[in-house]
Backbone:
């Protein structure tokens, strides 16, 4: 990996003068080239974002103030949603990292027929919508799903034993199931770069498989784990579809709070405040990830 | 640990494709055995069978008298060095060397203080003590290979497996490292070394015995001198050193017939009239008159500094002569006479394919 970075640096180094000479050709109006992307960004993204921020500063009573922020921050609903969001996202991320690492290890290093097919399927899985996996879980573990249906048929009981899907644990399960491939993908890429001679050298030096995983494979997988993990963390913080589709009423995350404030309570300033907080957390985490990953590579 | 490796009729096959065919070979404790052969000859497969990375389809592998065929690699206690070093990139040199010692468990668990001394000892032995705190990426190829050797020696293996260890190095560094390996072997007289290479110079320089491999089979095994002076077959003759191989017919009065001329050579054990191959080393061929004359046309002449290499066409066969630098070398197209002593020629069974 360090080799690639070094090569990129070299390439960037010698490409700079050429880039310079190219801009000098269009030096008359260099800013013209920047107009389309900036305009597109402004229309599609920045303007709505600005509207959200603006709305969050305009309470229903009129004028411009931080009153909506004070109100939202003081409410128990917000604090609870913030805590739920953070622990669900953190828990899902940890779960995805552990499960993803084990899965990637098996796919990459344990030769079994169909390993390639599984790796392919993971690529396809990444393109599925989030609610699909939640629906699948509902069919299996839902109140009237297959597992409970089988149980009630067999025992004659009124209810099945599987009621966790509408609890936070159901959301956690669904998020881990859906987001694990986002960790597996970069890990498989990292493992394919790993020199198998290193694993063999470790083995011949007396290291058992567990030690090889811990001391040789894991350190080299850390950048990929950081990349996959931070992606999953941000995606989980903003996840809406999964929480909605599990039908977990007691589980209110920040995106759910935005939804309920805006659609159900028509409290637009409050909804925008929560949205701004959500955006700040995401951007902050992304910035942190960039700093950490750059330091890890240096 | 006691050294010594024994292959007992070891066969390795991938998907029914035999890559090592019933290898029988013994490496004595303290002996350096070179497995010499072209790529695809099965030599690396043999090494990997000793390390435990390939499972023989049949046959047994013994280390120090113990059958290890069914043992996983981590229980074989072998030192291994490969062409591409395979150092752990995120560990410092000293951590790389300590890896094998820290991995030892149970009865062979090494105390921390001893790990330190043995790491220092291994680095000292390979001349890398000054680089203990470096990372592999901060070292040159030759230095990385020294660290890899130190890492393999730190666990004090009875058997050291070297898989083309010098192939990634440039020519000059290679000859330095060759001398270094010879010194290491003198310092570790009990360690058996299995040295896989396609380079005859490395094999001739370092090995006590050479096992010549081709097409999954052992072709010949002997001391470098035996293989060089009296090769068992054409493949060995052409792979261990250079060789002129001439198709001949054994004459009735002792000696052989090549083209139109009689050549005097020992023909013990070969029936008159049989086809055979005459092997003469290029540096044992002389220019001018003498016993066993070969006359022909110079097709090419190369000046190599200390020697001249002459390509001479004799009765439709190319004969190479390496001669000490000539004051007045013949020109392209000249008729010349070459000669060689009867003692310097060997008669081989007529081969198929090589020649």
Residues:
């Amino acid at each position: 990996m360090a080799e690639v970075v070094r090569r990129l640096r070299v390439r960037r180094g010698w490409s700079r003068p050429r880039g310079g000479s190219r801009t000098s050709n269009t030096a008359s109006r260099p800013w013209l080239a920047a107009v389309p992307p900036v305009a597109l960004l402004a229309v599609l993204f920045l303007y709505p974002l600005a509207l959200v921020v603006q709305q969050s500063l305009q309470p229903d009573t009129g004028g411009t103030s931080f009153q909506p922020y004070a109100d939202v921050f003081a409410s128990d609903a917000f604090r609870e949603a913030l805590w739920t969001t953070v622990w669900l996202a953190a828990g899902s991320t940890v779960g995805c990292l552990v499960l993803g690492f084990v899965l990637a290890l098996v796919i990459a290093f344990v030769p079994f027929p169909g390993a390639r097919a599984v790796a392919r399927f993971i690529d396809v899985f990444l393109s599925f919508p989030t609610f699909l996996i939640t629906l699948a879980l509902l069919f299996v573990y839902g109140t009237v799903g297959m597992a409970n249906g089988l149980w009630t048929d067999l025992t004659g009981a009124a209810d099945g034993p599987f009621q966790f899907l509408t609890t936070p644990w159901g959301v956690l399960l669904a998020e881990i199931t859906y987001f694990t491939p986002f960790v597996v993908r970069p890990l498989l890429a990292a493992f394919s770069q790993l020199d198998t001679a290193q694993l063999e050298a470790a083995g011949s030096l007396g290291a058992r498989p567990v030690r090889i995983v811990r001391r040789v494979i894991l350190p080299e997988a850390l950048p990929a784990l950081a990349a996959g993990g931070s992606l999953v963390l941000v995606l989980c913080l903003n996840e809406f579809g999964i929480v909605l589709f599990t039908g977990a009423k007691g589980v209110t995350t920040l995106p759910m709070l935005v939804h309920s404030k805006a659609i159900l309570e028509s409290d637009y300033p409050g909804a925008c405040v929560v949205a701004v907080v959500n955006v700040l957390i995401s951007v902050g985490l992304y910035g942190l990830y960039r700093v950490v990953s750059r330091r890890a590579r240096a | 640990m006691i050294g010594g490796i024994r292959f007992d009729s070891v066969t390795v096959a991938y998907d029914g494709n035999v890559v090592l065919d019933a290898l029988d070979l013994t490496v004595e404790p303290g002996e350096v055995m070179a497995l010499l052969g072209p790529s695809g000859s099965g030599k690396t497969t043999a090494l990997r069978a000793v390390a435990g990375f390939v499972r023989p389809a049949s046959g047994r592998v013994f280390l120090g008298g113990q059958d290890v065929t069914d043992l996983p690699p981590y229980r074989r206690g072998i030192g291994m060095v490969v062409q591409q070093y395979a150092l752990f990139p995120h560990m410092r040199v000293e951590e790389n060397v300590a890896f094998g010692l820290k991995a030892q468990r149970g009865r062979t668990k090494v105390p921390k203080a001893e790990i330190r001394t043995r790491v220092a000892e291994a680095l000292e032995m390979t001349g890398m003590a000054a680089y203990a705190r470096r990372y592999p990426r901060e070292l040159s190829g030759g230095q990385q290979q020294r660290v890899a050797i130190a890492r393999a020696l730190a666990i004090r293996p009875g058997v050291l497996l070297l898989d083309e260890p010098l192939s990634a190095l440039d020519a000059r560094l290679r000859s330095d490292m060759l001398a270094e390996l010879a010194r290491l072997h003198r310092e570790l007289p009990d360690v058996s070394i299995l040295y896989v290479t396609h380079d005859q110079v490395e094999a001739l320089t370092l090995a006590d015995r050479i096992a010549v491999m081709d097409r999954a089979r052992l072709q010949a095994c002997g001391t470098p001198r035996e293989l060089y002076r009296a090769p068992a077959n054409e493949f060995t003759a052409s792979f261990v050193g250079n060789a002129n191989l001439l198709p001949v017919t054994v004459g009735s009065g002792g000696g052989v017939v090549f083209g139109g001329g009689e050549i005097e050579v020992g023909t013990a054990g070969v029936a008159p009239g049989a086809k055979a191959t005459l092997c003469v080393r290029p540096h044992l061929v002389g220019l001018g008159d003498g016993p066993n004359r070969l006359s022909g046309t110079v097709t090419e002449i190369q000046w190599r500094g200390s020697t001249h290499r002459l390509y001479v066409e004799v009765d439709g066969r190319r004969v190479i002569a390496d001669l000490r630098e000539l004051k007045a070398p013949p020109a392209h197209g000249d008729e010349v006479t070459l000669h060689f002593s009867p003692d310097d020629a060997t008669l081989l069974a007529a081969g198929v394919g090589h020649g």
In short: The interface with chain A takes residues 51-53, 72-80, 82, 84, 86-90, 99-100, 103-105, 137, 148, 151-152, 155, 161 of chain B (CB under 8 Å). Chain B is about 25% helix and 35% strand. The mean pLDDT of chain B is 90. The longest strand of chain B covers residues 17-27.
